[in-house]
Amino acid sequence: MFRKLHEPTQTVTIHIGDVAVTAEAGETLAAVLLRQAEPWARVSPVSGAPRAPFCMMGVCFECLAEIEGLGAVQACLVQVSEGMRVRRLAERRELAQEVGS
Amino acid sequence: MGAQSSIADVIVIGAGTVGAAIAYGLARKGLRVTVLDGPDTDFRAARANFGLVWVQGKGQGKQQPMPAYQALSRRSSDLWPGFNAELTDLVGHDLGYERNGGLAFCLGEAELATRRAALQRLHNALGGDADWEMLDRPALEKLLPRIRLGPDVTGASFGRSDGHVNPLRLLAALHEALLRLGGALHAGHAVRKITGGSGGVRVETDAGCHAAARLVIAAGLGSAELARQVDLTIPLRPQRGQILVTERFAPFLPLPASGVRQTREGTVMIGATQEEVGFDTSTTVAAAAKLSARALRIVPALKSARIVRHWAGLRVMTPDSYPVYAQSTTRPGAFVALCHSGVTLAALHATVIADAVAAGSLPASLAMFHQGRFDVPQAA
Lengths: 101, 380
Prior knowledge:
The structure holds two protein chains of two kinds.
Chain A: E1 11-16, E2 19-24, H1 29-34, E3 42-43, E4 50-51, E5 64-67, E6 70-74, E7 85-87
Parallel strand pairs in A: 1-7
Antiparallel strand pairs in A: 1-2, 3-4, 5-6, 5-7
Chain B: E1 4-13, H1 17-28, E2 33-36, E3 52-53, H2 67-91, E4 102-107, H3 108-126, E5 132-136, H4 137-143, E6 153-159, E7 163-164, H5 167-180, E8 184-186, E9 191-197, E10 200-205, E11 208-217, H6 223-228, E12 237-246, E13 260-262, E14 268-271, H7 285-298, E15 307-317, E16 324-327, E17 334-338, H8 346-359
Parallel strand pairs in B: 1-2, 1-11, 2-8, 11-17
Antiparallel strand pairs in B: 3-7, 4-6, 5-6, 9-10, 10-11, 12-14, 12-15, 13-14, 16-17
């Protein structure tokens, strides 16, 4: 649906799940996600429906993704960097219960 | 003083949850209603609300108990299901209203005993059926199978009449319903002066004049100055409440608690402080720490939750914390309605209070909510 209007001069490679993706240095992860065949970042913890970046300015919290092992980070506030590892939040987010502790 | 820009049956000053509910109730009765609201920069408790429709403990008061306030809250709680159904039907969107009961968690044996005694005192003063009970820890664990409670939780009081709602959706629905029923809502019309008019009241605003047979002052913390103009002296002060909200989680809390509730969208709201700091809506790290610490003693797993917002609002507080419903004697068409529980009392405001304004007098059942209770007799 979305595509770049210009050819980036400086690129980096990031990993979204198992897929290597080329991105422009300095752009936000949310922008990169929106250019993918599957633009979603997470599923709603209530309905389980997929959600994609929306406001692109840190307000709506729709673009949460796991970035470098940190869960539920706002992808629109993170600039991509070489080798960045990203995972979509495919499971409904649960409050972690330390069962047995 | 501008040209007269509208004539209505009733003017309501204030489009917060209190004013909007009364205005909606009046429009629903077929009256022509004009609501005058101030600028966006006004203090707006309606936009900082925690969202409880709450009954248990209401009226126990720190200084003096008022069982009538408990009865009033319960009456509104009983009106809420019908109010919600009608409003939802009219505007076509859900308010997130639920009435599954509510909890007040107790930490330690002393809190449990104090809570039980306080609710029993209120109940003894009122008589009637108990709509509350004390739950011990095993009963709580059964009620909340998806939560591992902290070790300090000894139990909770459970109020059957309690519930919760999305307060922003409620406010938006009241505004929309008012407009659909033919009412008018003017933002940026801060009221400067209230005078008499032929057969009623005349109001001057920053953007024109309005006249009506009746007037309702429901302008929150701005009401004291306006009420003085109809010869009612109402002592009011702001009380700050700070609230935290977390990221969204799959539903784990099936009913609200007095300081922790999970919203329909999955976020967890943690509140609220009671601070005497004047007209200051700043948030503080100290309050965030205090609120978080108590929430973690109840649900330790919240320690991994991310806080996404933190805000403060100012409650509209009277000296005894209870509402004011009053009618001016020098300008009999003018009423005042003030409280810090605009969400809980919204159903009552849209019916009982709207009916009273339409009828032109407050019922005897509300007499003890007159502001005259704050008048200090002159010392001899």
